[in-house]
Amino acid sequence: MAKSDDGKLDQERVDQIKTAIKVGFRHLDGAEMYYTEPELGKAIKDSKIPREEFFVTTKVNYAIDDIPKAIGASLKRLGLEYVDLYLIHKPFFAKTEADLQNAWKAMEDVKRKGKAKSIGVSNFLQSHLETILKIATITPSINQTEFHPYLQRGDLVSWSKSKGIATAAYAPITPVTKARPGPCDEILASLAKKYAVNEAEVCMRWCIDQDIVPVTTTSKEQRMSDYLRTVTFKLTPKEIQALKDRGMEKHYRGFWTRHFDSNDRS
Q1: Which of 90, 95, 250, 255 is the most buried if burial means most Cβ atoms within 10 Å?
Q2: Which residues are catalytically annotated?
Q3: Distance CA 253, CA 9 (A)
Q4: Three-class SS of the chain
């Protein structure tokens, strides 16, 4: 979740993160542009849980022209010596292939210096990934991108997997939040009833069963607990395909829309 950059610690946000930790979450996803790194760091510190039990992600955006300085600033705000995953937040800053390639070289240096255990990207298309793979000595570990039944990204997931790049899905529950009504409504309701979970959990499990890591947000403790139920059931291959097929009947993109034509499903 993002907040305004007023320089003040948002105690309410700290408490929300501490609740997530109490419920059982250990993967905490932040970003420079969310302005939540101080709150993440405070919640981790206050938890008294060993640092190595957390998986902390942050992303560079505004300071993309100086990645060494950016990671230093992020670590200071987080109060950490390293992050588990450091991502380039988006590729749209680049005017040339060299811009992307130079940024990736700087990311590799971040990993070599031990400031990030893994490095990756976010919101990259195949063309962007191909550009950095031309010069990469370290393959991006993951591409975090909007992914759900109404935005399946064509061949991006399978192509990425063939290159050793995992996919993480943000906004995975879009069909039950922003994109209703839709062709997946009926099957989601049916599957939720079958597995005694809610429809958002079905959306997240649909990602997991395709080896995609779902990343979502909530400030509600009950929803946090609900989301943990995604590990208690598994969709059948037939159910996964049915959601894929129904999802293809509608197109919905919730983020970075100004960079895409209205019918672009990439």
Answers
A1: 90
A2: 34, 89
A3: 32
A4: CCCCCCCCCCHHHHHHHHHHHHHCCCEEECCHHHCCHHHHHHHHHHHCCCHHHCEEEEEECCCHHHHHHHHHHHHHHHCCCCEEEEEECCCCCCCCHHHHHHHHHHHHHHHHCCCEEEEEEECCCHHHHHHHHCCCCCCCCEEEEECECCECCCCHHHHHHHCCCEEEEECCCHHHHCCCCCCCHHHHHHHHHHHCCCHHHHHHHHHHCCCEEEECCCCCHHHHHHHHHHHHCCCCHHHHHHHHHHHCCCCCCCCCHHHCCCCCCC
What contacts 24+ positions apart, CB below 8 Å, involve 232-241? 232/197, 233/195, 233/197, 233/205, 234/205, 234/209, 235/191, 235/202, 235/205, 235/206, 235/209, 239/187, 239/191, 240/206, 240/209, 240/210
Per mean pLDDT, which range of 154-158, 229-233, 238-242 is the poorest?
229-233
**Total-model pTM:** 0.94
State the pLDDT confidence band at 4, using cuts at 50, 70 and 90. very low
pLDDT of amino acid 169: 98
